[in-house]
Amino acid sequence: MNVRRSAAALAAVGVLAAAAPATAADPSPSTKATAPAGLYGKGDPTYDGVWRQSLTLVAQRTLGYKPAPAAVDWLTGQQCADGAFAAFRAAPGKPCDDKLKTDTNSTAAAVQALAATGGHGAVVEKAVDWLKSVQNKDGGWSYYPGDPSDTNSTSVVIGALAAAGADPASVRKAGKSPYDALPAWSVPCDRDGGGALAFQPDKKGELLPNADATAAGLLGALGKGFVARAGQAPAEDTCVKATSRTQVADNAGAYLAAAVGKTGHLESALPGAKPQPDFGNTADAVVALAADGRTEPARKAYAWLEKNASPWAEQSGPAAYAQLILAAHALGEQPGDFNGTSLVSALNAQGPAPQMDTSGQRHEEEKKESRNWGWWIFGVCLVASIGVGFLLSGRKKRQP
Fold first, then answer.
1. Could you tell me where the DSSP H helices lie in the chain?
2. What is the model's pTM?
């Protein structure tokens, strides 16, 4: 789920299968499109508008904010009549046509965001119905409907189904659920990178370990979406043949923990490019490792991000800030102080200002007031009972 890469852009340069992106990117600004009102970030939204908006709204709700109506309206306005979302719909007032390529990743991200904001049940239901309609026979999903399934797309849809209140195990095509699809991408234990997940088999049918796909697949195997909290640590780290989603998760978690164990971060693996720290995938790995109960390597990776990731987030924009906030949330860290930077203020400054959701605060105040009334009534009854006791005692003393 690397925010810096776009499936559409990578497909255009012929490296989609190797790079395994699950998400849209934060591309360099261009003259193709400008950021419309209500959308977070100022960069060209062509490849990542819906994705970055969705991550932003999810992060804001996780922080306890109520997103600005303009931001939510922008996202709901991106939906096509059939329920699907594209990476960016430049003319939302016009019906979607064949020229607009809708995809599962943008749709699944929007589902998670709108389920989190609440009040958009019809939009969420229509999007989920579309996702179900394009499920492949192996139980998984591809980025674009009709293509072979991949780990990243399948996993982000699992997160959407869970966020919408659907049990991913019950969403089946030809008798198979997305949990049945995941083991097919698990690298065998006796291979290089055993336990990791591949994006999908390469042209030769080989499964190549991919850290991006492994982080996404680990969350998918756990039935989690963008938002996760620290889970229970696995019983053991021994790699075993993955025939179930539990084994997929155990193997993937062990691989990912080892991958960040030495340096605290993951590295990019684009063909022909010099390996360099991959901030987006490292942030996603923190969430996945925490959800899998592997908090020690997760905290090591988070510490590395806290020390190094601020310039990357500033350059990349809202989705990057959102990823770091979700990483902090997974470990119970404070995103308001990220090595001297407030991820919260930085994210909220990228678009229309949200408001703090006071419903939870009011609920706590109501409970507190209820407790106070309870103690007051108890005190009154106690005083009354003591008074009655003294009265009865006095009567007894006056009796002959």
1. 7-12, 16-19, 49-63, 69-76, 104-117, 121-133, 151-163, 178-181, 211-221, 245-261, 279-291, 295-308, 310-316, 318-331, 343-348, 359-398
2. 0.84
